[in-house]
Amino acid sequence: MKKQILVVEDEQVIAMDIHNRLQDMGYGVAAIVPSGEEAIRKTEELRPDLVLMDITLGKGIDGIEAANRINAKYNIPVIYISSNIAEDRMEQIKATNPFGFIIKPFEDRELRITIEMALYRHRMEEALSRSEEKHRTILENIEETYFETDLAGNLTFFNDALCGLAGLPKNELLGISNLRYVKPETAKKMYETFNEVYRTGKPAKVKDYEIIRLDGIEKTIALSASLIKDSSGNPTGFRGVARDVTERKLAEETVRKSEERYRALFDNNPIETIIVDNRGTITGYNHEKIKSGDRLPGPGDVMYRDYAGKHRTDMYSELMECIGSGISKEFPDEQYGDKFFYIKISPFPEGAIITSIDMTERKRAEERLSYLATHDPLTGLPNRILFNDRLSLELAHAQRSGKKLAVMGLDLDHFKDINDSWGHNVGDEILKTVGRRLPGFLRKSDSIARMGGDEFLILLPEIDEAEDAHEIALKILNVFKEPFIVGARELYTTTSIGFAIYPDDGTDPDMLMKNADRAMYSVKEQGRNGCRRYDPSISHNVHRKDILTM
């Protein structure tokens, strides 16, 4: 069943973009609401699995207050999404215990990972809560048993708790020996204990002994016994209190095994791990730390103050805050010198466990992959994916501001002849030169991208008139008058340019790019080496397949 996500975002374009991306990832979108008040109402009505909450909303309460109220009333994880956040609001954000924070704009991979980690953490917290409640109930219902025997050890009086412990009704227990359902070694230990009580008259304890019930169940009992005397001071029997410590013994064995496993895991953990006390003083580290080759902590070194202190973040303050609050904290991209680490601080009552994973190589690889995913490997310019993202954002901005923007398409003239005559290596060098020349004639706010082959797209946001785009197109045509130097060759080529203006020639990315494309190929039909704005008189039948040699 799809996880249902409530999207709280007051900008419709961004909200729909998130909606579509979530559906593409396989999630269900419970609803999209633009305000904090509606977020609370929809949470009550729909009970989604997760809430994606923009911090800055329109009228009414903001995302932080909405998340705070949702946390107070419903057990639903909240992830914040925001383009920026003031430092003075960080404490408010942390107080709502968010399950994640995503900075706009974000990639699908980042969104999916943050959602999955939030859902996983929520499931784990619920499981932990259920487990804690279970063990608390067990502890609250443990009952001690009281019993009395004659000098031979035969039961003469007892409470109902003993019946539950022994698994027998009262009429079957009355009169039987207290040694009847115990192992031989336990019977010997109990006999010696009761004999000592009889001889000394002093109470005694048997810490742990095992009984075997008729149904085969074994129980571990902690027993204290004392002597019963008559009015003349003569011994007449024994009284005692027994407590079922089976769970305790099992727990102790579990703890012992757990400690053994923990020690083995700690010593052999491939992740560098350091333990500190509640003052931050290092008390231990594992073999991976020793193998790292770094300087090892000295006696009394305080983590992130005397040792490993050159982090980008004030990690000592972060460590002390985690220990003081008891809340774990993760630093997935912490810089230390020229390296990057994924650091997690996990506090416990006596201090904290700090794990560090060297993410340097992975970060560099991810940065390279991210770059390759959004850039043309030949020219280094943005590719279609990044261009489309920028165009969508600028269109949203233009819709709000009322400004115009232009989408411009360029296609080199007779580029196929260059490849055929001089080879693709020469053609590639010309494309790289174009990629270096064109940005010099554009503003910092403009974008240029290579679509593939000899085609380029340019985005000109916030222009006042269509003539502004026409002037830039003329400048670009002049750029192509200069020769392209490839080795010892001096080559020349021209370009055909078409452009479309928002909102006059189109209001969505596809229409703007198609109309710019039509205008460009109209230029090619009319002799190339020129520029033209789209107008409806251009035949929609103009396609690049009709102009094979252009």
Please describe what this structure looks like.
- With 550 residues, the protein is of the alpha+beta class.
- It folds into four domains: 4-139, Response regulator (Rossmann fold), CATH 3.40.50.2300; 145-250, Beta-Lactamase (2-Layer Sandwich); 269-362, 2-Layer Sandwich (Beta-Lactamase), CATH 3.30.450.20; 375-546, 2-Layer Sandwich (Alpha-Beta Plaits).
- 41% of the residues lie in helices and 26% in strands.
- It contains 17 helices and 22 strands.
- The chain has helices at 12-24, 36-46, 63-73, 90-95, 108-140, 160-166, 170-173, 184-200, 246-268, 287-291, 315-325, 360-374, 384-401, 415-422, 424-437, 466-479, 509-525; strands at residues 4-8, 28-33, 50-54, 78-82, 100-103, 145-150, 155-158, 204-212, 218-229, 235-244, 272-277, 282-285, 329-336, 339-348, 351-358, 404-412, 447-452, 455-463, 484-486, 489-491, 495-502, 530-533.
- The strands form five sheets. A five-stranded parallel sheet has the order 2-1-3-4-5, with helices on both faces. A five-stranded antiparallel sheet has the order 7-6-10-9-8, sandwiched between helices. Strands 12-11-15-14-13 form a five-stranded antiparallel sheet.
- α14 packs across α15 (424-437).
- It starts with a strand and ends in a 17-residue tail after the last strand.
